[in-house]
Design goal:
7-stranded parallel β-sheet, 9-stranded mixed β-sheet, 499 residues
Length: 499
């Protein structure tokens, strides 16, 4: 009788903490052995010469979201998660979106229903765009049901929150044990710049970056962190685009603020110059925050290597290009502010980062695993069930060919979008086999499992996002009381003494 349901033999097993060459044994969807010379198995994979990695976790992707103005996401949960699996990802965290005036719990029920078509496991962030008293009362029960992260926008009509609304959401998160994630750009500044650009006739895709200079992201990042610091709420800044923003985050981390941050492959490969392409092609690269400069890319790589930025997600936004419900919803000569934002990338996230990072010597293998697998698992309360290759963890495994060269073309991808921004880019390193909870779901370009097998991952309270216990005054604004036992921070004066 076989000892294991599956054995992966002879590969280099890589985790965020190190690497070793051994066999890996799976039983009942879990990892049960990591050692040489494992016994017989019903199924075996020869991984000699390959890397054995934890399945990736894409903690920022948009799937089947409603969009104002008639545009729509081209990917369903079935197509998006299939594409994710082919790219080495075994868990996704998309969004439950609340539009103005909607009840959040009603939207939660709808998203849970449509997500049942997922090929791989999933959990959700809650987008709060209208924190009315009713919605704020709904949040604690939704958090308790396992939705332990909330996203807020500090820009974009009609979803952005003002500072008072943002503070209300932070207070609920602090009380209930949820992580807050932030799209940080200054709404008023962007609106002001956009109006003046349009008045000057500067409407091309390239002017998207002019409307959103890095200063609007830097200011909003500082403000988002400062207000979270006032309430002692752990925070993640989404899609950091450049050096000035990373520096702002590093300063907060240096003073002990619990702030985490991510970037995405598009910020590592594209600059504002790529928006200036002929025939409306630049619209393919309209995403927010906008792409920056080559020096910003160098700063991002440095921030990833130092750990200032600890997650790389895709921010997958699957709008088709040549489609009246996609990028061209307002025609093929629309002004930059009338083009749906975002790029597809759920399948290319890990290959692009591996190729540009590991293959080119910018980061090591362990850092790659940390950024794409282990850190998001820890940050979002999925570790050690996910993001790890250790006894007892889910058998979410990727067999990775570190030497395979692939020219990225949309024709070889599995999303439902008519383009990839990475068209023609040469990649070194490619996922060969993806295993999710012990089941081979993709193997050498062939789908081996059917959508609908994915499971919702309810997240219990976890220590990784426990507040630091520091407040700027002896008053606890979340609980509305002064406390003598609460530690608080005081600003140092010129003589070095607290003032």
């Amino acid at each position: 009788m076989a000892n294991y349901d599956l054995v992966v033999r002879g590969g280099l097993v890589v985790t965020a903490g190190g690497r070793m060459r051994c066999d890996l044994g799976v039983r009942d969807g879990r990892i049960v052995a990591l050692e040489d010379g494992l016994g017989k198995s019903e199924n075996e994979i020869d991984a000699r010469g390959k890397l054995v990695l934890p399945g990736g976790i894409d903690s920022h992707c948009h799937i089947e979201e409603p969009w104002t103005g008639g545009a729509r996401n081209a990917d369903s949960f079935a197509s998006a998660t299939t594409a994710a699996a082919f790219g080495g990802t075994t868990t996704v965290i998309p969004f439950i979106v609340q539009q103005k005036g909607q009840r959040l719990n009603q939207e939660a029920r709808r998203y849970h229903r449509i997500a049942q078509e997922s090929l791989i496991d999933y959990t959700f962030h809650l987008i709060v765009s209208d924190p009315s008293p009713t919605v704020l009362e709904e949040l604690p029960s939704l958090i308790a049901e396992g939705h332990r992260s909330i996203k807020v926008f500090l820009t974009y009509d009609p979803v952005f929150l003002n500072d008072l609304q943002y503070l209300d959401v932070l207070a609920v998160a602090r009380e209930c044990g949820a992580l807050v994630t932030v799209h940080a750009e200054n709404h008023g500044a962007i609106r002001w710049m956009t109006e003046r650009l349009l008045s000057a006739g500067l409407t091309a895709p390239m002017h998207h970056a002019w409307a959103k200079p890095i200063v609007v992201e830097r200011e909003a990042t500082y403000r988002a962190i400062a207000l979270a610091e006032m309430l002692d709420v752990p925070l993640q800044i989404f899609h950091v685009s450049g050096g000035e923003v990373a520096e702002e985050i590093a300063r907060a981390q240096a003073r002990g603020v619990k702030v985490f941050a991510e970037t995405c492959p598009q910020y590592l490969l594209f600059t504002a110059d790529d928006l200036d392409r002929p025939d409306f092609e630049g619209a393919k690269l309209i995403f927010s925050p906008a792409p920056r400069t080559h020096s910003d890319q160098d700063a991002l790589w440095d921030a990833l290597a130092r750990g200032t930025l600890d997650v790389v997600s895709s921010d997958h936004a699957p709008f088709r290009f040549d489609d009246p419900e996609g990028k061209m919803i307002n025609g093929n000569n629309a002004s930059f502010d009338q083009v749906p934002n975002g790029v597809p990338g759920i399948e290319t996230r890990m290959p692009v980062l591996y190729s540009e990072g590991v293959s080119k010597g910018r980061i090591d293998l362990e850092t790659f695993v940390a950024l794409t697998c282990t850190n998001p698992a820890k940050l979002f309360g999925l570790y050690p069930r996910k993001g790890a290759l250790q006894i007892g963890a889910d058998a979410d495994i990727v067999i990775w060919d570190p030497n395979r060269r692939v020219c990225l073309q949309n024709a070889i991808l599995h999303h439902n979008v008519d383009y990839t921004p990475y068209e023609g880019i040469e990649i070194t390193g490619w996922p060969e086999t993806t295993i999710a909870r012990g089941e081979i779901v993709c193997d050498r370009g062939v789908l081996k499992a059917e959508p609908g097998r994915g499971q919702f991952l309810a997240r219990e309270p976890y220590d990784y996002i426990r507040p630091s216990g520091r407040l700027p005054t002896p008053f606890d604004p979340t609980h509305g009381k002064a406390t003598s036992t609460q530690r608080f921070t005081r600003r140092a004066g010129r003589n070095g003494r607290a003032t």
